[in-house]
Design goal:
Elements (H helix, E strand, L loop, with lengths): L4 H7 L7 H14 L12 H12 L7 H4 L3 E3 L6 E12 L5 E11 L5 E3 L1 H12 L2 E2 L1 H16 L3 E10 H4 L10 E8 L4 H12 L2
Parallel strand pairs: 2-5
Antiparallel strand pairs: 1-4, 2-3, 3-6, 6-7
This protein binds guanosine-5'-triphosphate (GTP) and zinc ion.
Length: 202
């Protein structure tokens, strides 16, 4: 039994996340920026950051295959689209947040294999809760759909604001980055236009 066991259980954290090591590193960062890690307000900060990192990087230890293993046969071969899925991720270049919304559409396989709608939002979480770049987040989501649902087509659109462009660096708050990844039948202009109009027509 370690002092971290209750945290690991509460947050359902994968035990391969090394909480004491994060804590040590955060203490070092505080010293390096010129702070006193032993002053009252900062005493518990390394521990808090370790817990919060375990949460925001939990996706590194989660398998989208497990998530999408449960499918059901609905005989629905038309487009399914879940839009405006909010999420937070962490920029792998600066370790500050980027956040926004994801839109996921797919046309089920010939046998109408579909997944639960919540699983699409959970899929976003698995890939968002990692050190990320927006482009990779977008393609990982669409490729997981293709691999595990074998849809006739799939499309993912992600819109984000990056804190590394807002609070530092170029300092352009409000600038939005939009990325998309399209596979299969959704590459066809008419089908793609239908999906995009469903996303934009909010
Ligand atoms: N393509 C892409 N770039 C990103 C993403 N997140 C951050 N970046 C960019 O990564 C780049 C890193 O550039 P560097 O020159 O190595 O780092 P930097 O000196 O901190 O750059 P500035 O942010 O311009 O101050 C920056 O241009 C960021 O805007 C992302 O999700 N996708
Ligand atoms: Zn960044």
């Amino acid at each position: 039994m370690t002092e971290y066991d209750d945290v690991i259980a509460e947050l359902e954290i994968d035990t391969s996340i090394d909480l004491p090591r994060i804590e040590k590193a955060v203490r070092e960062i505080l010293i390096a920026v010129g702070e006193d890690p032993d002053r009252e307000g900062l005493q518990d900060t390394p521990k808090r950051v370790a817990r919060s990192y375990a949460e925001i990087f939990a996706g590194l230890h989660q398998d989208p295959g497990d998530l999408l293993a449960t499918t059901f046969d609905l005989d629905h071969e038309e487009m399914v689209l879940v839009k405006d899925i909010p999420f937070y991720s962490t920029c792998e270049h600066h370790l500050v947040p980027f956040h926004g919304t994801a839109h996921i559409g797919y046309i089920p396989s010939h046998d109408g294999k579909v997944t639960g709608l919540s699983k699409l939002a959970r899929l976003v979480e698995i890939y968002a809760r990692r050190p990320q770049v927006q482009e990779r987040l977008t393609t990982q989501i669409v490729d997981a759909l293709v691999e595990h649902l074998e849809p006739k087509g799939a499309l993912v659109v992600v819109e984000c604001e990056h804190m590394c462009m807002s609070m530092r660096g170029v300092r352009k708050p409000g600038a939005k980055t939009v990325t998309s990844a399209v596979r299969g039948q959704l590459r066809e202009p008419a089908t793609r236009a239908e999906a995009m109009s469903l996303i934009i027509g909010r």
